[in-house]
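Thread amino acids onto this structure.
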């Protein structure tokens, strides 16, 4: 990476975040300016752009800022990157497992809502549900109101 120096407005545009976000990430120790002018102007380098883009990427994958900070802070003790790589693999696998569980729950909810739509669209007499038509209803196996003998 080269020694290009970016002002805060430049780096925010490159990383597609607001200046306020850059300042916030700096305040919690996620990104640091590589230099400050005598007047307090922040300057960042290409590495800072990479860090900001990594933060945005990890946030989009539901990493908390604490999780991101933990991974970023590993860099001081992780010269070859293997510790961060292993931690990211662990975290990605955990996030994937959570996402799969949410997907399965969402698919179950979609199936349930679709079933209710089919039931309402094909039911012959909505006002008789549950009731006398239960014994002939094609939705009986899943319906919580289903009455085997047709009695209420």
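Threaded sequence (152 positions):
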């Amino acid at each position: 990476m080269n020694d290009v120096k970016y002002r805060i407005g430049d780096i925010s545009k490159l990383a597609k975040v607001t200046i306020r976000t850059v300042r916030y990430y700096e305040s919690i120790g996620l990104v640091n300016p590589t230099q400050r002018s005598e007047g307090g102007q922040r300057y960042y380098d290409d590495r800072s752009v990479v860090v900001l883009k990594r933060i945005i990427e990890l946030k989009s994958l539901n990493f908390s800022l604490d999780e991101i900070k933990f991974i970023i802070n590993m860099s001081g003790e992780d010269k070859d990157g293997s510790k961060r790589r292993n931690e990211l693999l662990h975290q990605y696998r955990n996030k994937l497992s959570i996402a799969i569980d949410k997907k399965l729950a969402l698919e179950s909810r979609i199936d349930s809502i679709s079933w209710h739509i089919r039931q309402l669209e094909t039911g012959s007499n909505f006002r008789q549900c549950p009731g006398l038509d239960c014994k002939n209803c094609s939705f009986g196996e899943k319906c919580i109101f289903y009455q085997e003998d047709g009695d209420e």
